[in-house]
Amino acid sequence: MCTAGVCRLRLSRGFEPMARLQARSESEVIDAVAAARARHSTLEIVGCGTKRGFGRPAEADDELDVSALSGIVSYDPDELVITVKAATTTAEIEDALGRRRQRLGFDPADWGPLFGEPAHTATIGGVLSADVCGPARVRFGGARDHLLGYRAVNGWAESYKAGGHVVKNVTGFDLPKLMCGAMGTLGILTEVTLRLVPCAALNITLVARDIGPDEGLALLRRVWTSAFGATGLAYIPGLLAAAFPELGAVGRGAALIRVEGGRVSLDEKMAGIRALAPRLHLEEADGEEMFRSIGDGRAFIGKNLDVWRLFLPPRAAASCPEEADSQVWLADWAGGLLWVATSADDHASARRIRAAAAANGGYSTVLRAGKVTRRRIPVFQPEPPLLAALSRSVKAAFDPLGLFNPGRMYEGL
Length: 413
Prior knowledge:
Blueprint: H1 4-12, E1 20-22, H2 26-39, E2 43-46, E3 62-65, E4 72-76, E5 81-85, H3 90-98, E6 102-103, H4 124-129, H5 137-140, E7 147-153, E8 159-163, H6 175-179, E9 188-195, E10 197-198, E11 202-209, H7 213-224, E12 232-237, E13 253-261, H8 263-276, E14 282-285, H9 288-296, E15 305-311, H10 320-323, E16 328-332, E17 337-343, H11 347-359, E18 363-368, H12 371-376, H13 385-398
Parallel strand pairs: 1-3, 2-3
Antiparallel strand pairs: 4-5, 5-9, 6-10, 7-8, 7-9, 11-13, 11-14, 12-13, 15-17, 15-18, 16-17
């Protein structure tokens, strides 16, 4: 039986298609899922909606708003662990952590403005479901490396928990890693526990200007494989330099290297990095805003372009944009991630991008495009038959009736 909070919004819409349900607690989420099972209807799971334009448009009967499941449940700074409700904004979490000089190591980006939504409203559940990681991933790992445990509601309208409050807690399937990047198709997150990292005393960005992509990305790879622990390794071609006013003139392009630590260790790191490139002049700069801009995709905000993300072996990054026939691009994670933009609804370019990523041992994802394009071409890399069968089996195990975000990742799933 529905709670009053869930039913009231359905009745206000007269049971019309795409009714908007709202759940204010885990028990109301359970009630909403139980009602969906009874009606044989499907649910689009929505928090604050900042990434609703990412992935295929959900093919759901109703919308379940879980944005009220917000707030910090517990925070243990000494143990570097925080537990929050899933619709807590990353801005609220980062504000609480910042007061204790701690942070989320996977550096969650804010893609809201990229999709025309307000900044600072992304929820941690949405960030984890979309596996949104910023530039510091190159040092600290991705979202799935920081999710220790969670509570969720499955397709049987049952609440359950997985993982725990410590790093080494896996005795069976590592379900937290499975939930990251699942786009809400396996269940409804209600609470998450994350491990944290301390904030460094200082950070500085070294900038190599007027450097071509081959040389610039080779430098980033050398730093990446060194012992200096860089927390940002990006290359910005000259064509996109105007999107980063803090950077100034860069000529052919600029390689950005962010390092962190105390004063003594920071000086040692910068000296070591300069020794890796003795013929280059590396300027010191404050790169925090530049790296935040890179992670948030600000170079593409307000532009009528489809935006792709290509995940590649870093050695392939320099040649891949030319193979994809794209001039609007930039690299992060030492070349492990390429942001590539094309004209809107250019399906010929889409085929070239996907082929270039695959030919170089990587894969590609459409981050931003119109609904027609996101229905016409696969948003996520098409899976080979055996992997696709495994995905269907996992989906059936968590959501046997296919209630949650149907079609959001792959058509018919």
